[in-house]
């Protein structure tokens, strides 16, 4: 099995690219999706988050805006949250890998792959990248997004140029969907027949 880490800064089109890998029959582990499930109704880290950040959860799980307000701009609080979330996501990832043990290629979609040292757990890395003006426009079009929040998120992420420099593959998303899909297929073809390591 080849474990391909898929990453990219906010607004680069990573979710779209992950969907293209799925369309090609490649199993994809979505770290963000795992976090949503873990923090959703009945999620297994809801109680731990409530204990550390009282008043940020309810019947629907974690109140994401309330939790965001508690950790925004507070590095220590953010680190406490990560200490709850990251190990649980790691367990979900291992369960995914066990379920797909027979696959020759899997994608691990991890937004902060380099920032969390996740690149050490994959065989190859693909970075999704678009020009800064495209990234900015996509991100600021999201509901509730502000320039301040966008810049704070960027500040926690390795710059795009740094990600591209460390990647085995760069998947451009600044052009058409067909061009991006062709790049995804090129990555899959390139990895076909290779072994991890």
Plain-language structure description:
The protein is an alpha/beta fold. It folds into two domains: 121 residues, Rossmann fold; 61 residues, no CATH class. It is 51% helix and 14% strand. It has nine helices and seven strands; from the N terminus they run βαβααββααββαααβα. Strands 2-5-1-6-7 form a five-stranded parallel sheet, with helices on both faces. It has a two-stranded antiparallel ribbon with strand order 3-4. A hairpin with a 2-residue loop joins strand 3 and strand 4. The longest helix has 25 residues. It is globular and about 50 Å long.
Radius of gyration: 17 Å
CATH superfamily of the largest domain: P-loop containing nucleotide triphosphate hydrolases
Fraction in helix: 40-55%
Number of strands: 7
Overall mean confidence score, pLDDT? 92
Give me the number of helical elements: 9
Uncertain ranges: none
- Total domain count: 2
As for the CATH topology of the largest domain, it is Rossmann fold
Which CATH class of the largest domain? Alpha Beta
Strand content: 5-15%
Order of helices and strands: EHEHHEEHHEEHHHEH
Q: What is the structural class?
A: alpha/beta
Tell me about the biggest sheet? 5 strands, parallel
Q: Termini separation (Å)?
A: 9 Å
Give the overall shape, derived from the CA principal axes.
Answer: globular
Known CATH architecture of the largest domain:
3-Layer(aba) Sandwich
Strand order of the largest sheet: 2-5-1-6-7
